[in-house]
Amino acid sequence: MSPAVETLLVAQRELRTNFRSAKGVALLALTLIGGVITALVWSKGMHANEELGLSGTTASAIPAGLIALAGLAFILRATVWLTPLLVLIIGFDSISSELQYRSVRYWTVRLRRQSFFVGKVLGLWAVVAIVTLGMDVLVWAIFLAHGRTAAEVMSTGPGLWLVSLPISFAWSAIACLVGSQFRTPMLALLVTWACFFGLFIASHVGVDALRFLYPNYYEDWMLADLGDVAKSIEQMATPNLFASDPKRIAIGASGCFALGAIVTAVGAFGFTRRDL
Amino acid sequence: MSDFAIRLTHATKQFGTTIAVNDVSLTVPGGQVFGLIGPNGAGKTTTFSMLAGYLLPTRGEVEILGHAPTNADALRGRIGVLPQDAALPANDRVGEMLVHAARLQDVPSSKAPTLAREALAEVAGSDWWNTKCGALSHGMAKRVALAQALLGSPEVVLLDEPTAGLDPRVAYEVRQIVRSRRGRCALVVSSHNLQELEQICDAAAILDHGKVVASGSMAELTATQEEIRVTLAAGPVPIGEVREIPLVSRATFDDDRRELIVGFERSKSDAETVIGAVLWTLLQKGARISAVAKGRGLEQRVIEMTR
To answer: Which residues, including other chains, have CB under 8 Å from residue B47's CB and lie 6 or more apart?
Structure first.
């Protein structure tokens, strides 16, 4: 059996387990909360001029469609920002609980340990991607319900979800790497959170080398600056929500995938060298 | 193709400064039921875990069918393991868990359910197919874990405390399952239940403080071809007459147990012939015989070796 098939079987099981357990119910709740928050933000979205720092005079002249587009961009970007939180909540015990109860022992006599680790990362990534898509679809639905056209929503929504994929992949890899070091899920949760927060702080206090380890750093490569979006709207122009240079998007996505791949490789290697 | 199923060569496992298993060397041929015996902390479970690939040896080598136990690809479907303290995945249904295990053994998805059902039927658990693993009692969970270990036709089966916590009837059934596999695969059984091991094992190793203190066939370990024990009720103990029997090399009497221990040379006679001669002498001298046994019993042997 090839490592790819092993990995796929582990990832499939991870998906099944997550969407059927108590955690699955929690995920559903999170998705709904995401939808409610979206609706609340939307209610303010018509006043996006304030969010974007536009002057009242200018804002009154801006077509509602443009303002809605800015609101959509803001909300969908929020789902990207939420990615590490989702990964943390869903993935902290992905491996540590299997280590705690030693159920991992039923699997590692049957498959390569590397495949187990990679399958866990991919499974977690798939779960997060599906939950993010669920939240995004709710946002799209709300915007459609408020009179925006399908073309407006589709020009932005799927693209922003795609941007979240490399980011969630890298976060999933980090969560699995850190979580796999602990046999106690609660400890795994705390240390993973500390690690995520540490990366956030390090990347925002100007530690250049550490910025590359912070998955959301790559978001800036793939998406347009919110200030530029505001400026476009002020100028009554339809804003481009993504980076204007496709190369820049490709570099951002590749960098983020590379970060995730490196972390996954390190985690898989470590997993083969440890006692279970 | 290796001529052994399992081989440990100077295997050592160290946790920090603690040496759990120290320079253990063992060979188990195919088709044999092999016992790992020893008191708590002797290193049984650590040795078992190295065999299963859960623990990596600090020094030395562990081979299963000529491969490192962590070489999952080479050993896929050829090794089955019943870990002692691993919980079944609570949210999985029994059938689903076994099918997943079968799939990981490279069984096609069309055949995996059939194989899983067969394994479950072997442990008399067919009714639990749709039961969640988390809802199983201890005994049921142990049998499901045994089913996953026996899934397919593994050439090596490792069982850690297979009957611990089972009621006598189920424990008997498990022993029957182990017996039924004798000759078809190499089985390593780690257990505290010495009576059970004596019944089902062809050979064993006794561990103490991480070292092998004795190993060999069960007959060698229990000296069934070297001594007999006769328990006498209150009355005469004609030990002098027994010593005069030509086949007898030594005879002693344990007052506390009221046990006459009679040694003989296996090259000159067999246990059955010596039993006949000794009993004849004892009966002639009016001794009252309560019980007769070949050898010294595994339990006594282990107690002697692990003091």
So the answer is: B8, B11, B13, B21, B24, B36, B190, B207
Token pair recorded at residue A67? 């303002």
* Chain B residues close to A101, C-beta within 8 Å: 86-87
Contact A11, A122 (CB under 8 A): yes
Which of A17, A109, A273 has its CB closest to that of B91? Answer: A17
| Residue B65 contacts A, CB cutoff 8 Å | no
List chain A residues with CB under 8 Å of B85.
102
User: A232, A238 in Cβ contact below 8 A?
Assistant: yes
ipTM topping 0.85: no
Show the tokens assigned to B152: 């397919």
Q: Tokens 């400890």 correspond to what residue?
A: A187
The closest alpha carbon to A179, from A242, A249, A236, A123, belongs to A123
Give contacts of A111 with chain B, Cβ < 8 Å.
Answer: 72, 76, 104
How far is the C-alpha of A193 from the C-alpha of B86, rounded, in Å? 28
| CB-nearest partner of B52 from A17, A107, A109 | A109
Structure tokens at A22: 């108590």
What are the beta bridge partners of residue B291? B231
Please judge whether A110 and B76 are an interchain contact, meaning their C-beta atoms are less than 8 angstroms apart. Answer: yes
Tokens of B214: 């004795």
Residue A228 structural domain: 3-273
Residue B253 sits at the chain A interface (C-beta within 8 Å): no
Q: How confident is the model at residue B117 (pLDDT cuts 50, 70, 90)?
A: very high
Contact B86 A102 (CB under 8 A): yes
Distance CA A176, CA A191 (A): 12
Residues A109, B75: C-beta atoms closer than 8 Å: yes
Rg (CA), chain B: 23
Helix (H, G, I), strand (E, B) or coil at B123: coil
Return the closest-CA partner of residue B91 out of A121, A131, A5, A23: A23
Measured distance CA(A51)–CA(A233) in Å, rounded: 12
Number of domains comprising chain A = 1
In tens, the pLDDT along B184-218 reads 899 999 988 888 888 889 999 999 999 998 888 88
Query: What is the nearest CA distance from B91 to chain A, expressed in angstroms?
Result: 7
Nearest to B76 among A1, A20, A273 (CB): A1
* Partner-chain residue, chosen from B81, B85, B91, that has the shortest CB–CB distance to A21: B91
Confidence category of residue A57, pLDDT binned at 50, 70, 90: very low
